[in-house]
Amino acid sequence: MNKQEIYALLSSRKIWHEVTEHKAVFNMAEVAEIALPYPEADAKNLFIRDDKKRNYYLITVKGDKRADLKAFRRQNNTRPLTFASDQEMMDILGLIPGAVTPLGLLNDQEHKVTFWLDQSFLEGEGRIGVHPNDNTATVWLKTEDLLRLLRENGTKITLFEV
């Protein structure tokens, strides 16, 4: 699914969302340079895999938090972890570097990726800001709506504390 298909899906499902169009961003430092309406809900996404390329993970945390992969490995008893390659990202999620987003999991036809979400996205307003499979916009939605979409897609989801 591309950006327009994501917007169409959200609209057809009557899922509340707001869109912030912006310049292409490739990291959190560049995101910090743009004015976002809900900066506290902005997400940082890491697409990682184990050293045998058997298990893939999309880890999503709040933008101001650090994802500690060594701690993640210890807590979840995984094999050594590394970032997935650009080619794996394209083949599995249909995304380019800088555009990693939970909405890319809708492209994971084989359900290879387990989604790990920082449970703090469910607190307060329960809002999350993610790319719509393109790094030139951020789409804001209710975290519960995102989780429902992914569950209906067959995505394995784990909530965790960062």
Describe, in short, the structure shown.
With 162 residues, the protein is an alpha/beta fold.
Q: Within the CATH hierarchy, at the fold level, what is the topology?
A: YbaK protein
The residue-averaged pLDDT reads 95
Query: Helices and strands: which structural class?
Result: alpha/beta
Radius of gyration from CA coordinates: 15 Å
Number of domains: 1
Q: The biggest beta sheet, please?
A: 5 strands, mixed
**Order of SSEs:** HEHEEHEHEEEHE
| Strand order across the largest sheet | 4-2-3-5-8
Describe the fold and architecture:
This protein has 162 residues and is α/β, with parallel strands linked by helices. The chain has a single domain, classed as YbaK/aminoacyl-tRNA synthetase-associated domain (YbaK protein, Alpha-Beta Complex), CATH 3.90.960. 25% of the residues lie in helices and 27% in strands. The strands form two sheets. It has a five-stranded mixed β-sheet. A three-stranded antiparallel β-sheet has the order 1-7-6. It is globular, with a radius of gyration of 15 Å.
Itemize the secondary structure elements and their pairings:
Layout: H1 3-12, E1 17-21, H2 28-31, E2 43-50, E3 56-62, H3 69-76, E4 81-83, H4 86-93, E5 113-118, E6 127-130, E7 137-142, H5 143-153, E8 156-160
Parallel strand pairs: 3-5, 5-8
Antiparallel strand pairs: 1-7, 2-3, 2-4, 6-7
Attribute tags:
162 residues, alpha/beta, YbaK protein, 5-stranded mixed sheet, 3-stranded antiparallel sheet, 8 strands, 25% helix, 27% strand, globular
